Amino acid sequence: MTTTDTALLAEGLTKSYRGTPAIVELNLRVGVGETLGLLGANGAGKTTAVEMIAGLRAPDHGRAEVFGLDPRRDRAQVRQILGVQLQHAYLHGALTVGELIDLYRSFYPDPRGSAELLELVGLADQRRIRFEKLSGGQQQRVSIALALAGRPRAVILDELTTGLDPRARRRMWETIEQLRDEGVTVLLVSHTMEEVERLCDRVAVLDAGRIIATGTPSGLVERVGADSLDDAFVALTGTELEAPE
Ligand SMILES: Nc1ncnc2c1ncn2[C@@H]1O[C@H](COP(=O)(O)OP(=O)(O)OP(=O)(O)O)[C@@H](O)[C@H]1O
After folding, report:
1. Helix 136-148 vs helix 97-105: angle between axes, to the nearest 10 degrees?
2. What contacts 233, CB < 8 A, 6 or more positions away?
3. Is the CB of 43 under 6 A from ligand 1?
4. Which pLDDT does position 163 carry in this prediction?
5. Residue 242 falls within a domain, yes or no?
6. Do the domain assignments include residue 99?
7. Residue 154: domain span
8. 242 CB near ligand 1 (under 6 Å)
9. How many whole angstroms from 121 Cα to the centroid of ligand 1?
């Protein structure tokens, strides 16, 4: 049952690609204001899961909710309250960073300011550069700024800091901490234990399309008698996470 303190909900979400299951009976709840980390090895199904919760991919079975709304049926309303940054953003390469940001700001009644968004992702100096001329990490930072343009109540961030240099990564963590302080709900797909331990209230571990454990980062470590979240992940899944680029 949905309650008013639930921001994002997955109930029995199931998806196969050409008969091969990618996500099986996914049940997940992210509370309002909570930051939840979704951890899993390559191919575990993280992107498929968050795309279904965001309404960008139709499940075979099950349902998703975003603040009580159906992300596919109530798409227009959900767009106003949910920001999504996906691993592979397809953006118009000929537009400059500033133009892209202003285009996205125009979709919302009360957007964040352009200067604030550029500052949040550390791209103030790149405002006049065309998107296609940016480095991969800078392009990723643009997609994060776009996800935040409409002051969303919740954000889904898929591998927020993969490919970012250490300074950009730290800055991004500070941005997430600022969002948390503002009460924004965050669903964070991550490969980085340090990131999850620093930012997340709770973690869900996905393995071969199924959630195999949920809990606080320290609770998971304790439960499996591990020394670190890294070790807990290996103990739970039998797989090591790849180090971020
Ligand atoms: N569009 C698609 N068509 C066919 N198979 C797909 C498609 N998208 C994903 N898959 C398969 O579904 C499984 C889960 O993929 P998904 O991208 O959701 O995993 P992930 O945990 O996000 O992986 P990664 O960490 O590598 O990004 C994988 O086996 C993948 O090959």
Report:
1. 20
2. 39, 193, 205, 239, 240, 241
3. yes
4. 77
5. no
6. yes
7. 6-237
8. no
9. 27
pLDDT of residue 88: 65
CB neighbours (10 Å) of residue 72? 16
Choosing from 14, 18, 39, 46 the residue with most ligand 1 atoms within 8 A of its CB, the one to mutate for a pocket test is 46
> Which residues lie below 8 Å from residue 70, measured CB to CB, with a gap of 6+?
55, 63, 64, 78
What is the residue with the minimal CA distance to atom 12 of ligand 1? 22
Distance 137 CA to ligand 1 centre (A): 22
Going from the Cα of 182 to the center of ligand 1, the distance in angstroms, rounded, reads: 32
Is residue 244 one of the residues assigned to a domain?
Answer: no
Query: For residue 241, what pLDDT is reported?
Result: 66
Q: Would the CB of 35 count as within 6 Å of ligand 1?
A: no
ipTM summary value: 0.95
Averaged pLDDT, groups of 10, the chain, 245 residues long: 81 96 97 96 93 96 97 95 81 90 94 94 94 89 93 92 83 90 94 89 94 92 86 83 55
195: in domain: yes
For residue 31, the domain's CATH number is: 3.40.50.300
